[in-house]
Structure formats: C-alpha cells, structure tokens
Amino acid sequence: TELREDMPSVLADVFSILDLETSALEEKNKRDHYTQLVGACLVTILKERLDPETLESLGLIKQAHQFNQKIVKIKTKLFYKQQKFNLLREENEGYAKLITELGQDLSGNITSHIVLESIKSLIGCFNLDPNRVLDIILEVYESRSDQDEFFLSLIKSYMCEPLTLCHILGFKFKFYQEPNEETPKSLYHIAAALLHYNLIELEDLYVHLMPLDAAIIEEHKRDISEAKQIARKLVMVVLPSEKSEDKEKDKEKEEEKNDKPPDNQKLGLLEALLRIGDWHHAQSIMDQMPSFYATSHKAIALALCQLVHLTVEPLYRRAGVPKGARGCVMHPLRSKRAPKPAESFEDLRRDTFSMLCYLGPHLSHDPILFAKIVRLGKAFMKEYQSDNRPEVKDKMDTLLSCFLSIADQVLLPSLSLMECNACMSEELWGLFKLFPYQHRYRLYGQWKNETYSSHPLLVKVKAQTVDRAKYIMKRLTKENVKQSGRQIGKLSHSNPTILFDYILSQIQWYDNLISPVVDSLKYLTSLNYDVLAYCIIEALANPEKEKMKHDDTTISSWLQSLASLCGAVFRKYPIELAGLLQYVTNQLKAGKSFDLLILKEVVQKMAGIEITDEMTSEQLEAMTGGEQLKAEGGYFGQIRNTKKSSQRLKEVLLDHELALPLCLLMAQQRNGVVFLEGGEKHLKLVGHLYDQCHDTLVQFGGFLASNLSTEDYIKRVPSIDILCNQFHTPHDAAFFLSRPMYAHQILSKYDELKKAEKGNRQQQKVHKYVAACEQVMTPVHEAVVSLHPARVWDDLRPQFYATFWSLTMYDLAVPHAAYEREVNKLKAQIKQIEENPEIPLNKKKKEKERCTALQEKLQEEEKKQLEHVQRVLHRLKLEKDNWLLAKSTKNETITKFLQLCLFPRCIFSSIDAVYCARFVELVHQQKTPNFCTLLCYDRVFSAIIYTVASCTENESHRYGRFLCCMLETVTRWHSDRAIYEKECANYPGFLTIFRATGFDGGNKADQLDYENFRHVVHKWHYMLTKASVHCLETGDYTHIRNILIVLTKILPCYPKVLNLGQALECRVHKICLEEKDKRPDLYALAMGYSGRLKSQKVHMVPENEFHHKEQPARSATPASQQNGPGSTGKPATSTSKTEEGTSEDGDRAKDKSQGTTKPVNKANSAAAKVTTSNGNGFHRLGKEKKEKKEKTPGSTPEAKAENRREKQRDERAGKEERVVREGKEKTPKADREKVKPEEKSGKDDKVKAGNGEPMEPSRERDAVKEAKSKEKGDRSAVAGSLKSPGPRSESAESERDHKRRKLDSHASPSHSSSVKVSMA
User: Fold this and answer.
1) H or E stretch at 996
2) In terms of domain of life, where is this protein from (predicted)?
3) pLDDT for position 1198
C-alpha cells in the first residue's frame, strides 16, 4: 500500500497528544520513554506543533520565553501591520480620484460596472482601505440620493456583506444620536433603499437606531396619562387659585419640551421606507411600536397616505371618481418592489386595507384620501347590492366586512380629528346610508364607547368636545337658537356622538330645553342626524336608568322628555326611523311597554294624530267626519305640513314590515301589562301603562288606516278569525284593525259594481252598495262564528255582531254642524286676509286660494259622506229584521249585546263611545224586532259601579262620555212630550205586553207613555246617584278617581234633580276635605268637579218638576212580569181601583189602564226585570202618576188621608236633606235615603210590584226601611235580585184578588221578575 501524504502530519498530531498526556503524569519513566521516542522522530514538523516548553526540553530550541516573543512579533508584522492608506491625509490623491470617479455625470453610458473597475484600480494603485472606500461610496450616495439604481448596483457589486454595511450605517446613525443633532433625511433614504433591495437586514440595522423600544412604549404611556389628566381637568370644577397653579405647571412642562430630544431614528427610517414604497419593512417597524404611535407623527401619516394614494389610484379612476371630477394625476413609484396598484376591489385586500388600519385616526391629515376611500366604499356597495351571483357572494361578503372595519377603525376616528369638515361628514354619509341601520348603529356604538379611549389625541378631543358642549348648552335659549345652533352644528361635524350624548343628558334633566335644542339642530349634516337617532335609542335603552319614578306610580320624567324630543326631532328633520321603531318592537317582544310612549309621540308629531280623552264636543264631532274635517277641527295642535313626515313614517313601516307586528304586539301587550308586567307594580302605574298601550294602539291603527293604501292595508292585515284565534288578539283590537279593511273592500267592490252596470239612479246605487256589502261581509259573518261559543248566537246573529263592530260614526251620521263650523272659519279667515293691509298681494292671493280650496274640499267631503250615510242606513234597514233572534229572553239578548258589543267598544276610544250610544239609538229608530230599548238603557244606567271600578283612568273618560251620550238621548226624550211621541211612542223598543183578565179577556200591547217615561228617567238618575255615592264612600283610590271622572263627563246631563245634586255635592265636598293632604290628584279632581257642579246648580230642578211625584192613592201594584221570546218587554199593570172599590172608580181605572196605568206598570216591571247588581229593583216607574190619574186628588177620604201622609213624608224628606247637607250620614244608602224618601217609597212599590202584593200606605214605610236595608246589603253582590220588602198581608192579597190584574206569564222558565244579570 502507498503511504498517505498527510502521514507526517497525523503522526505529529499523535506526538502532540502524547506530549500533553505524559506531561500531566507523575510517573517520570513514561515521560522518558516519550522523549526517547520523539528524539528518534523528525524535528521540523514538531517544532510547529509542540508546546514551546516541550521543544525547549527536547533541545530543539534554546529558550521557550524568547521563542514566544519572537512568534508574537512575527504575527504582528504579518497580520496587524497596515500596508494601506486609511485617511485622506495619508493618501489624498487616491481618495480625491475616488470621489471624482463617484461624482461624475452618470447620464451617459457610465455604468456601475465601469465605475467599480475604476474603484478597484484606485484601491490597488493607492493602496486604499476598502471599508473606507465603502464609506465614501455611501457618503456620495447620500449627496446623490436620486441615483438609487446606480449606487445600489455599485454597492451590491462592491460589497455584498450585509453586516459590514450595517456596521458602517450604524456608525453613521450613532453619530447623530447626540442631543441637538438631527439625522439627515438622505441617510434615512439610503438606509431605506438598502433595506428595500435586501442589501441589509432590518434586524441588523434596527439595533443601531435610537431610541429603544422600551423608551417609545414609556413615552406612549406618558402621552395617554397626560391626555387623561387634561380630560379630567376639563371636566372638573377648578377654583381660580388652582387654575393659576395649573398654568405655572403647564409653562414648566412646555419649557421642558423645548429642550429638543434626539431624533427618533426609527421613525425617520420608517418615513423613508414609506416614501420609497417599502411597505413590508415599514410594517415590520410599526409592529414594534404601540398602536398608531408611528402614524401620530404627521410626516409618517402623510407618507403612508401618499403610499395609499398611489395604491388605490387605478381603481379610484375606474370606479370612484364622481361625474365631472377631473382630479390630479398621481405619478407611480419607480420601484418595482413597491405595493402593486389595485385594479379591482379584491386587490384592496392585498395591502391597502392593512395600510389604512395602521393609519387609523390619522387619515384626518389627508381629507382628499379620506374622500377617495369613502367613494371607493360607495362604488363597492353599489356593486355589492347589484351583483347577486352566488359564486362571488363569499368574496363580496368578505370585502363588505373589510369596508365596515375600515369605517370603524379609520374613517370615523379620522372624522373626529378633522376640524369641523361638514363636506367629509356628508361624503361619509353617502357611504353609510348604503349600509343597513344595524351596521351603522354598531359603528356608531364603537365610535362613541370605544374609539375615544384608543389614542391620546382622541382622549383630548373628547374632553374638549364635552367642554365646548357645556359652554354652548349653558347659553342656549329660545332667543339665541340661531347662533347656538351654528355652534352646535360646527361641533357636531366631527364629534357628534360626544356632543349628542351630553345634550341628551341635559334634556333628560331639563325638559324646557327640548324646544330650543330641536330648533338648533337645523345645521346638522345627514350623518349627524343618523348619529342622533342612535344616541337617542342608546339613551332610551340605558340599563342604569329606571323608567319609573321612585314612587313607582308614574313613568320617569327623563323617559317622557326623551319621548317628546323623539317626536319633535323625527318630525322636523329627515332622520331614519327604522332603528327607533325596531327598538320599540323589540321592547314589546320582551314584554316591556314603557317605551310605547316614544311611538305615541312620534306618531302624534309626524302624522298629526292625537289621542286624548280631553277632546271637546266640537272636536269629537269633527272626528266623525272625513279626513279633511278631522285635520281641520279634530285635533288640538296644528297638524298641517305633516304630509311629508307621515309619508316617511309610512314608508319605514312598510319597508321594514313593522306595521302589523307593532299592532299585534300592542294589542297583546295590553293584557300583558296587567298580567305579566304588573305583578309588583303600583296599580296606578299599571293603569297608566295599560292606557298608554291602548292609546298608542288606537293612534297607530288610525295612522295606518288613513295613510296606507287599500292594497297595502289588505295585504298586511289577516282575517278576523286568524287575528283572534291564531295571534290571540283581543276582539275589540282585532275589529279595530280590520274595520278600515272592510270599508276599503266594500268601497272598491261598490265601485267595481258601478262600473260594471252604469246606472245613475240613486236606487240602483243603493242596491249595488248593499250587494257589495254582502259580498265583502259574508265571509266575515262566517269567520266571527268561531270567536264565541255557539250559545251566543242563539240571541245575536253573527251578521248583527259583525255589523256593530265593522261600522264607525262616519257611517252613521254626518256632522253637518262641524262642517259648517269649519267652513265659516275659513270664510272668516278669507275676510280677515282681505282686510289686512300688511300682507303682500301675492301672499294674499295664495292664502285665499288655499282657504277656498280647503272650503271646497270640506263641502265635497260633506256631500260624499252624506251619500255614504244614506247608503249605510238603507243597508241597515234591510238587515235589521235578521239581527236578533227570539230564542231566549230579551234580557238575555240585551245581556249579550252589552257584554260582547256595547261595553267592550264604548271604552275603546272616545269616538267609539259616541258610536255605541248612537248605535243603540239607531237600532231603536230602525224599529229592530226583539230589541227592547228601555231594557238596554236601564241596564246601562243601573249597573255602573262595577264597570266604573274596573276601568282605567282613560277608560273612565270614555265610559263617562258614553254615559253622557246615552243620557243626552234620554234627556232629549224626557224634555219634550212631542219629541217623545215622535221618536219613541210607536217604537217596539218602548212596547210593553200585559195580560188583563176579567175585563177585556185578551193580551194587550201598549206603549210606555210620556209621563211614565219621566218616572223611569228619574229612577235612572237616582240609580246613578246611588252608585256614585257608593264609589265615593269606598275610600278606594280607583273607585273615587273613576267615578269623579265619569261624573265630570256626564255633568251636562246629570244631575238634573236638585236633591240628587245636593247629595253628590255633599259627598264630593267630604272627599275634598279628606283627600286634601293625602292624595292630591283625587283632591284636584274632586275640587274641579265640585266647582263645575255648583255652576250647574242653576239648571237643576226640583224633583216634582222633573216628574210628577204626587201619589194620591197607592192601591195599584204591579204584579210579577216575565218576558217571553215573543214579548217586547211590556210590563203588565194592575188597574187602579179605590180602596172603597166603587164601580165608578173601577171603570175610571179601567179606562186609565188602557192609556196610562198600564204603561206605568209596564215600566215598573220592565225596570224590575232589568234590575242588576247595583240596585234591588228601585222602580217608581210612574206608579204615583198612574195612581194620580186613577184618582182625582181629594175625591175620597182615603185620598185626603194619603195627601196628609204625603205632606208628612215631604216634611221628613226636607229634614233628611238638611242632614245630608250637613254630611252626618256616611253610607251611600243613608245618603240616598236622606235625599229621596219618595224614591224609597217608590222602590217599595216596585218591590211590591215584583211580588204582586199591594201594601197599605201605613205599612209602606216599614217596607221601605226593610227594602233599604236589603238594598244596602245587596250592593256588594255582582247580580242583584228583587226582594219582597215585607211580609205578604191579607189586605194586600184581597186587594190583589179584587183588582184581578195579573201579569203576562208566558215567559221562559229561566226568567222571572227578579233577574240576575252578569255585566261582564
């Protein structure tokens, strides 16, 4: 085998290792063996490898120490002695030539390769230091920074070692890190260029730059704390002495800042990187710093903005430039490594969005770029909304989320830092209005609650805005609205959320600011209005605010103030309503009805539809007409100019499908208020919330009915059975919503039939209208059957039920007086305009034209309504025979009519209250079979305690109005015999049936005559008094409040009898005394009623003028009476006969019984029949009048004795009335006993009438007392029944036999003279 070439070296290595090993051993013999071995080897190689001491011991060298010194000298000479020239002064010619070479004109064919060859020659010729040459190349590059391409290529060819370059650059940067030194931009530029072309690494260079990252973070924290401190100072109340101290401290801080710190070289390098378009390295530097720290320096922000400009330019030119705009040309960067310009929206995701996110709020430095980004967003949204391709949906959704993030993190914060730039605000609204309100409100929420804490500048801006807002609001009055409004507008352009938050907080405390604030908001931009809507919703939804006052009986004033502001602001300014309406809807879904106050205010202000139970009779009359009459005379406020605002409200409801859900939720929530919400709430508050919910439903439904087109309304409202059975809508609300739909459908069908057969005769039109009604209402008749149990339809036909619920006052009567009143007002207005010389002629002409046009509209509307009412009445005339069935007693029929129709609707609205009274009158006038008018009125007036007690406050107003209208009709009939004869005498509603035995031997039908009707009316007045006094004496808040409201409403018609009025006055006076310091609201109601009652005293009459109460004889006693299916509620009477039983008197009595006596007792037993829970058959019913007719006063000794007894009773009555006035008695019964002793005797007679037992006058008083005590005991029962006032006497029995008068007894077994009636 051949010997390896490196064998000597390997062998030497072995010896070297052995040397080390043996030198460490203590055994000398081994060391000796080693030296012997080495001695036998070659020495040359060993001298290079072995330790000097070993060589010395081997004798190869003389002294190890000298050998070491010699080695050091040789190495120094070889490696450390410089043979090159490092400094210019050492070899200035070489460096001069180098500088000349680098500084030559490079415009020709000079390339970096040629120059590099020259540099190498110079280095070799003049022995130049290569590092120093590199330094000079960089210096020249600094001075000629425009020659990037040449120098970068040269450096790359000359020295591609990154660390060397970094050391030289780091040395340069370190030179400028001394205080008061400024790093030149050229140095930043070459460092950026070298980084951009990857000649050096950022990590290597970054460590040479100052300040340290830790110092930057500390500075950022310090800035935030200072900003917060400034914000606190602006919010705090500072004393004058403290202000001066703060000023001195601020001066010291400013002086400290004047000592200029060293440059932030990292930021300088960052700016240079951005200028040349090196986004990758710039992003790396910004990631090392706190958020937005870098861009908070204006130069960097502008550099980044410029880079974004260049990136978006092509896309902006294609999609974002508005029509007519030219714009300035942007020159692209020369570097091919810069971010690529975006050609499509998808390209924006590559770099542009991230650049904008790093820019953050500091986009405010470049409003032009701000506008460009916004316009690109608008262009994208239009494309997003138009492009529905499924394959691009995911990409578009991603881009949408990107634009939303940019809006949140960049656009809105930047707007906050702009100086009141209204144009930018409007530009931004152009983008935001394309977003759904849910996206917008989320952005506003972030802007308001989070953005301002993210940056020191924004913290300061927020504090300054609040400070300025305080300044403006302190000085805002009605007189300086214009000036303050401009200041508010200026402040709102940049920071609307902060401003509105403060303004709303002030309005919640001071509601008198609402009017001036609303007027001052006219200088806002569209974006600001939208932000205001969000701020209002946020304030309403504030979970920290209680919506009830501390007493838990009323809604908090802050909520009322905000609701009032909502109505005014949304009406006056074009603000989108969808968010607010959806908020109310969501609250209703959650079972909360407080916020319905907002909806109520908005509808009232925007549509001009008021809901109030304090309407005057003129307004109420106007509300029964057409839309024009309602607008002119039906409301308190001025409702002109609501066309645009109501149109806006309608469009929002339709676009967002909120119309029907709101109606249904409100209808369901009415009961929810009581059974779900009202568990722990005060009864007064529950009632208030119920009223608010109900009133808002009525108001909102009225708005929909008058503003939605026929198609829109019918399309959205389901049929009545679906509303009630599927959506569980209460029946009254369901019919309220469906009623306009029926009217629309009937009219459209009527028009359709008219067009089909053109006939102008009125008769033909009426027949077509009836046919249209049948076609539309027949499905409704079938649908309502499912709403109630089958037994209900035994008495009421579905047709009657549907007719009652589907008609309105507009269908029943024309308010001619209201039309005439409004026309006269317009005529007077025209005359006033003509006589006013100050009005310019052109304005005069316009106003006159407006008034004339309005006048013509009203007259045309009146004519149209008149024709409509005639058609409706004709239709009702044809229908009436099929309305009521005779399967049950009339009492049952009336009960169902009251329960299912009259009572639910009369408390629904004021118009419905009038409608119910008018409908009863109409049914009477139509001579409807099986309808007993007397019975209906009696049930209404005799059963008010429990109805009143179960009403809310507003329902009491409506119930009172209903009673007033009913009383008006009764009073009109009572006032004049001619009217009574004309309107009641021959009507079936006043028909009575009695059976006479022994005289005529058959059934007789007769009418209740006028005088007996007056007795009946007096009985009703007495029952009202009895119920009123009872309610006033209960001490219960609801009873007292409601009865006072009802009494106030019926004051025009009741009380008319002096002694009843005195009893009420006494009781109300007592309430005033008792409640003065306990319950102020009751005291106020009682005082108000008391004053009005006193003013009505002059119109009251004594009882004997109201009806004839003298009773010459008391022998006639009505027997028990029943109503059969075929009867019309006519009570039978006993013929009058004197106590002597003379045939002459008997004949006279028989004659009277044919005309007067029978109706009297008919009325008696009718009243007995309808006695209800509130009274036990109090029926004078003309018994006295009957007997007066039977006997001539004073014709017999018995009559004279009776007269004496009457006088004694009158004297007792006077004494007892005085006792009433003194307020000695406390119970309602006692009061009524004091007030009306005659009434008691009449009641006694009535009770006797129920039992068919006559009583002698001497026993009547005892019976009266017993009846009174029974009446008092029975007041608490829900249903009352007549009771016999005393034991059956033999004389009464014999007299009854003698008279031989018996009542008609062919009634149903379930019904007797004492009827229990449930007034549900």
Assistant:
1) strand 991-996
2) Eukaryota
3) 43
CB–CB of 434/382 below 8 Å? yes
Residue 211: cis peptide before it, omega within 30 degrees of 0: yes
* CB 492, CB 500: distance < 8 Å: yes
- CA dihedral (169, 171, 177, 182) positive or negative: negative
Q: Report whether 935 contacts 897 (CB < 8 A).
A: no
Contact assessment for residue 1261 and residue 1293, using Cβ atoms and an 8 Å cutoff: no
**Per-residue confidence (pLDDT) for residue 1203, from 0 to 100:** 52
The beta strand positions in 725-855, using DSSP E, are: none
**With contact defined as beta carbons under 8 Å apart, do 223 and 456 qualify?**
yes
Give me the average pLDDT of each 10-residue run along the chain (1320 residues). 75 83 82 77 70 83 88 85 64 87 85 90 87 90 88 87 89 87 91 91 91 89 84 63 54 48 83 92 92 90 93 88 75 79 89 92 92 93 85 88 93 89 90 92 92 86 89 88 90 91 90 88 91 92 73 75 89 90 91 85 84 78 84 64 84 90 89 73 82 89 85 86 88 89 85 72 76 88 89 87 91 90 88 82 84 89 90 88 78 88 91 92 89 91 89 92 93 91 85 47 61 91 94 91 93 90 92 88 92 90 82 38 36 33 37 38 38 36 37 40 51 45 39 40 38 36 39 36 35 39 33 32
What SS3 class is residue 1126?
A: coil
Phi and psi angles of residue 951, each rounded to the nearest 5 degrees, phi first: -85, 150
| CA atoms within 13 Å, Cβ hemisphere of 615 | 26
Q: Which two tokens stand for residue 805?
A: 């619920």
Place of tokens 């009174």: 1268
Location of structure tokens 């059974």: 675
Do residues 689 and 594 make contact, with C-beta atoms less than 8 angstroms apart?
yes
Q: What is the pTM of this model?
A: 0.72
Task: Please give the single-letter amino acid code of residue 210.
Answer: M
Q: 3-state DSSP call for residue 634?
A: coil
Residue 969 amino acid letter: T
Half-sphere exposure of 1230 (CA within 13 A, CB side): 13
Q: In what order do the strands lie in the sheet with 1003-1007?
A: 1003-1007, 991-996, 1301-1302
Tell me the H-state helices in 573-679.
Answer: 578-589, 596-607, 617-622, 627-633, 643-655, 659-675
Q: How far is residue 621 from each of residues 136, 615, 670, 965, 1053, measured CA to CA in Å?
A: 102, 10, 28, 12, 18
CA distance linking residue 417 with residue 423, whole number of Å? 14
Burial 1112-1151 (b: 16+ CB within 10 A, else e): bbbbbbbbbbbbbbebbbbbbbbbbbbbeeeeebbebbbe
Q: Are 13 and 4 in contact (CB under 8 A)?
A: no
Q: Using CA atoms, how far apart are residues 56 and 29, in angstroms rounded to an integer?
A: 19
